[in-house]
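Worked Example 4.2. Consider the chain below.
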Amino acid sequence: MTIATHWPQPTDILRYYGMSLDAIDSLKREALASLGLSCADLAPPASALRFAGETDVLEAVQRLRAELDHEVVLTLVAAFEAQLQVDFQGRIARKQRDNVSRQFRNLWYARSRRACWPEK
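Applying the procedure from the previous section yields the following structure tokens:
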């Protein structure tokens, strides 16, 4: 089992995260500039937010950032799990004699025996 080349690697995920943060910051600056505000204004006046509609620009940007953080964490976990699975399967297939490989094979064979012969 190998990791497919189209699967994102952790470095790719972190690069995506950085570019996305830059895009969110740019969106925030543009949205605040369109309201006549700057990023230095931490608490924009309520009248400007009403002018923008019912959506508070800063809250919307904060929600985007939180969603991006969750997305990246889940993607990183999946990428690391894939690498662990590849290592696990490789150690079983190569039948190396080191202690970790032997313990992995024992776990693998015990699990496959339970699947074939369920306990009553």
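Helices lie at 10-34, 46-51, 57-94, 99-116. The longest helix spans residues 57-94. Compare this with Example 4.1 before moving on.
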